[in-house]
Amino acid sequence: MSNVSNQTNIKILISAEQIAKRIETLADEIVADAPSDLLIVVILKGSFVFAADLVRELERKGASAQVDFVSLSSYDVGKVSRGPVKVIHDLSEDVTGRAVLIVDDILESGRTLEFARETMFQRQAESVKTCLLLDKPTQRKVDIQADYVGFTIDPQFVVGYGLDFAKRYRGLPYIGALGSD
Ligand code: IMP
Ligand code: MG
C-alpha cells in the first residue's frame, strides 16, 4: 500500500483490515491442528497486540487455550538484533507435557524463536508449534521456519501493531515501514 500515515516517515505496509482478515484465516489453520489443551506462550513485548487479537479469534472458533507470557530480548535500542537471547521475565506455567503454541511478532535472524523453541523442549513440552505475525525470510541467521506465518515481508524495519522502534509506535493499528530520514 502506498498510504502515508500522519506520523512522518511511516508508510503503511499492512492495514488494520488486512491484519484482521489474516488473523481469521490463521486461527482457522491453528484450530484445524490444535489439541484441546493448548498452552499459548506469548513472547513479549512485540507480540502483545497480535496475541490479544489471535487468542480472541481462537476463542471465537472454539479453541479455548491457556495463555502465558515470557519476555525475551536480543535487542539494545536499535534496529539490529544482537544475540544472545535473554529471558527478562519467565513463564509462570509449567510446560511439562503441554502442547505449546509460541506466538511472536516477527521472525528475522531466527535466534529468538530458536531460543524459545529449544527452551520449551528442554522443559519437556510435549509438542511445540510456532505462530509468527511477520516473517523476513531473507534475514535468517539460523535455520528455522515458523509453522504459521501471517505475512512474509521484505527486509525492512517495521513498526506498529505491537512492534516498536526505540520503544515507540507500538500502538499504531497497522504495520508500517519506518523511513530513514
Ligand atoms: P530475531 O531473533 O532476529 O528473529 O528477531 C526477532 C525479534 O526482533 C522480534 O521478536 C522483534 O522483537 C525484533 N524485530 C525484528 N525485526 C523487527 C522490526 O522490523 N521491527 C521491530 N522489531 C523487530
Ligand atoms: Mg520480539
Would you mind describing this structure in some detail?
The protein has helices at 16-33, 48-60, 111-122, and strands at residues 10-14, 38-44, 66-73, 86-89, 99-107, 127-135, 148-152, 158-159, 175-178. With 181 residues, it is an alpha/beta fold. The protein has a single domain (16-75, 84-153), classed as Rossmann fold (3-Layer(aba) Sandwich). Strand 2 (38-44), helix 2 and strand 3 form a beta-alpha-beta unit. Helix 1 (16-33) crosses helix 2. The radius of gyration is 16 Å and the shape is globular. The relative contact order is 0.21. The structure holds inosinic acid and magnesium ion. Residues 43, 46, 104-105, 112 line the site of magnesium ion (MG).
Structural key phrases:
alpha/beta; 24% helix; 181 residues; 3 helices; binds inosinic acid; Rossmann fold
Secondary-structure blueprint of this entry?
Elements: E1 10-14, H1 16-33, E2 38-44, H2 48-60, E3 66-73, E4 86-89, E5 99-107, H3 111-122, E6 127-135, E7 148-152, E8 158-159, E9 175-178
Parallel strand pairs: 2-3, 2-5, 5-6, 6-7
Antiparallel strand pairs: 1-9, 3-4, 8-9
Helix pairs in contact: 1-2
The chain binds inosinic acid and magnesium ion (MG).
Structural class call reads alpha/beta
CATH class: Alpha Beta
**First-last Cα distance:** 20 Å
Count every beta strand, where a strand is a DSSP E run of 2 or more residues: 9
Rg estimate, integer Å? 16 Å
- Count of alpha and pi helical runs: 3
Q: Main beta sheet: strand number and arrangement? A: 6 strands, mixed
The run of helices and strands is EHEHEEEHEEEE
